[in-house]
């Protein structure tokens, strides 16, 4: 009897702490709303959780730690996306399955031999819960993991719950071309623009509603929306603590530039990996940093200023163990955001690409990965032909407008 009273007191304190913490927040994420209003969805069920280090409640505790203490909730499996369950693995590092040291629960890897949960992985799961902070860019792999897990849930008759979280770079701005089907891959799995302006829960609704994955008509999908989030909010306006969604996305500034600067991965130009400012600076041995900065600033792009810089990429364990031009001094640009509301990172990247091609035609190389990232066949030729950046952007506008009309019915906020 005494132990039962102690247990009930502990649970009461837990929920009081959560409630107090939530009172101080502008935004309550889906996990907080689940804990306070919808525990019946998972009580008495065997729960599989797809999450990483960003799956944090307002109490500061990880979703696995919180749910594992609740009576009637049984966590039967964990599923790790790219970078692992704790988010400490570099990009493109394949994982094997393992056991979580803190809880002893089996962690199935969804970034290794399998990208999609198998029947074996889901044998002891009744409900799959997805809780991961996204960055709002099509080639960031977490929404691909979500869609594949939705497909597996439909195939094997499992309920799928998305605990919604903010789009960190607001839910209004949409940029970039709609990916062409021939370039569908794990870094571009749905026909959406590069920067799609939706939350994970809204993307999940659109995946199901548009039938982008197989058997979506069979999927039992439920979204737990946030409370207090508005579409014009940036992450630092939510009151929520920033937790790096992956090792090379350290800040809101990085996230704001990433939808454009990620394209540098397909070039023989450093995107700043191996430094403390990935995706905020670019460089190569053959760039004249002062001349390039001058030319880019002459274009008067909104929300951005270019500073000449020299830096040396190094090996950073846990973030970037191998980098372009590692241990070499290279020259390039630091991208300084002056107004994030007017910043358009895809516009910046298109202008930068055309400028690099114009002034370094023999040095700049456009790698095979370019089409997979940008998602369209014509882009390479547009750069090689030195088309005006505004013409390239204009080509994308009809697709953006069509997407806006299509996604409107799936928006939650």
Brief descriptors of the model:
single chain, 413 residues, alpha/beta, Rossmann fold, Aspartate Aminotransferase, domain 1, 7-stranded mixed beta sheet, 3-stranded antiparallel beta sheet, 10 strands, 31% helix, disordered N terminus
Task: Tell me what the structure shows.
This protein has 413 residues and is α/β, with parallel strands linked by helices. It folds into two domains: 2-243, Rossmann fold (3-Layer(aba) Sandwich); 252-404, Aspartate Aminotransferase, domain 1 (Alpha-Beta Complex), CATH 3.90.1150.140. The chain has eleven helices and ten strands. It has a seven-stranded mixed sheet with strand order 3-4-2-1-5-6-7, with helices on both faces. The protein has a three-stranded antiparallel sheet with strand order 8-10-9, covered by helices on one side. Strand 1 (46-51), helix 3 and strand 2 (74-80) form a beta-alpha-beta unit. Helix 6 packs across helix 8 and helix 8 runs antiparallel to helix 11 (389-407). The termini are far apart. The model is unreliable at 1-22 (pLDDT under 50).
Short description:
By secondary structure, this protein is an alpha/beta fold. It has 2 domains: 2-243, Uncharacterised protein PF07075, DUF1343 (Rossmann fold); 252-404, Alpha-Beta Complex (Aspartate Aminotransferase, domain 1), CATH 3.90.1150. Helix content is 31%, strand content 13%.
The CATH C-level class name of the largest domain? Alpha Beta
In CATH, the architecture of the largest domain is 3-Layer(aba) Sandwich
CATH superfamily of the largest domain: Uncharacterised protein PF07075, DUF1343
Adjacency order of strands in the biggest sheet? 3-4-2-1-5-6-7
Enumerate the spans where pLDDT stays under 50 for 5 or more consecutive residues: 1-22
What is the number of helical segments per DSSP (H or I, 4+ residues)?
11
Content of β-strand: 5-15%
Q: Estimate the mean pLDDT confidence.
A: 92
Q: Provide the domain count.
A: 2
The 3D shape can be described as: globular
Total strand count, please? 10
> What is the CATH topology classification name of the largest domain?
Rossmann fold
Task: Give me the secondary-structure category.
Answer: alpha/beta
Q: Cα distance, first to last residue?
A: 46 Å
Helical coverage, percent range: 25-40%
Radius of gyration: 22 Å
Taken in chain order, the helices and strands follow as HHEHEEEEHEHEHEHEEHHHH
């Amino acid at each position: 009897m005494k132990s039962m009273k102690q247990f009930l007191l502990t649970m009461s304190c837990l929920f009081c702490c959560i409630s107090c913490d939530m009172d101080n927040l502008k935004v309550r994420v889906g996990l907080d709303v689940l804990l306070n209003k919808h525990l019946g969805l998972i009580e008495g069920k065997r729960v599989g959780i797809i999450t990483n280090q960003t799956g944090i409640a307002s109490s500061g505790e990880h979703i696995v730690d919180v749910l594992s203490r609740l009576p009637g909730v049984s966590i039967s499996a964990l599923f790790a996306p790219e970078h692992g369950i704790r988010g400490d693995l570099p990009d493109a590092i394949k994982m094997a399955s393992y056991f979580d040291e803190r809880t002893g629960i089996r962690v199935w890897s969804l970034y290794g031999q399998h990208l999609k949960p198998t029947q074996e992985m889901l044998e002891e799961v009744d409900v799959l819960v997805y809780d991961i902070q996204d960055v709002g860019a099509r080639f960031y792999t977490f929404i691909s993991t979500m869609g594949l897990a939705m497909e597996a849930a439909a195939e094997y008759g499992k309920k799928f719950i998305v605990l919604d979280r903010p789009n960190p770079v607001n839910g209004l701005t949409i940029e970039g071309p709609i990916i062409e089907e021939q370039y569908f891959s794990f870094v571009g799995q749905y026909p959406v623009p590069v920067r799609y302006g939706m939350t994970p829960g809204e993307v999940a609704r659109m995946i199901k509603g548009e039938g982008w994955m197989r058997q979506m008509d069979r999927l039992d999908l439920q979204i737990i929306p946030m409370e207090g989030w508005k579409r014009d909010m940036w992450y630092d306006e939510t009151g929520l603590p920033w937790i790096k969604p992956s090792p090379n996305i350290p800040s809101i500034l990085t996230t704001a530039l990433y939808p454009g600067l990620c394209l540098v991965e397909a070039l023989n130009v450093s995107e700043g990996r191996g430094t403390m400012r990935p995706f905020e600076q670019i460089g190569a041995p053959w760039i004249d940093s002062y001349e390039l900065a001058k030319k880019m600033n002459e274009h008067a792009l909104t929300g951005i200023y270019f500073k000449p810089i020299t830096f040396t990429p190094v090996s950073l364990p846990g973030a970037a163990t191998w980098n372009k031009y590692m241990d070499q001094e290279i020259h390039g640009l630091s991208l300084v955001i002056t107004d994030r509301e007017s910043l358009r990172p895809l516009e910046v990247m298109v202008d930068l690409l055309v400028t690099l091609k114009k002034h370094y035609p023999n040095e700049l190389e456009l790698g095979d990965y370019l089409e997979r990232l940008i998602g369209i066949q014509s882009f390479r030729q547009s750069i090689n032909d030195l088309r005006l950046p505004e013409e390239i952007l204009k080509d994308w506008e009809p697709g953006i407008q069509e997407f806006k009309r299509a996604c409107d019915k799936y928006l939650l906020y």
